[in-house]
Model the fold of this input.
Amino acid sequence: MTLTLRIRDVSPATPRARLVRIDLEGHPFEFAAGQAVFVGNHGGDLRRPYSIASAPEDAVRDRAIELLVGVRDTGEPGDHLTLTPGAEVDVEGPVGSFTCPSSIAEPNVVFVAGGTGIAPLRAMLRHAIAMRPAPRIGLLYSARTPEEFAFADEFQALAAHGAIEFRQTITRETTLDWSGSRGRIDREALHPLVHGADTLCFVCGPRALVDDMPKLLLEMGIPPKNVRIEEW
Done:
């Protein structure tokens, strides 16, 4: 399905990404948490895929979907898309099988994100929080530097209210004040969030991350059927 929609608003998410809200008013649009859409300027030949960063419940309430769009130094994502509020865009989808089910049988869920791989996991996490009963939810998020954590304030607020367990790690040196963890995600970083073999794990990020996580999680007793991965 391809729809012509309008960009409702654009806001900074990180120095290298923008949060783009696309208006769904008057356009029914169903998707599963974790799916993506292809987006490009209306009438253009180029479209690129972006995971939907908002949950289906958010879309019903707000009549919009949110995308985390990487940008160049110019502040634009490329020739395929101009980030101007009010501009028309062609949206094709939803697509993708990396999804969170409508209900989760496991009592524990852990989301492991690297960089902009947080986008589909944010949708899944928000979807899981809305479940009744909600599972115990953990989020382990890796970024290069502190300013490259998208949605960090949101996740910290959820953690402060007890809705999730949230941990962060950075992988590069920084001149910014940072007292959190450093280094790539390893078994030590995962351990506080994995509460037994009955944990369902979703992993999205760079190839190195999605290659490493299944092996680490297997060592921690998580069966392969409980590990879902997506390279981004």
The radius of gyration is 17 Å.
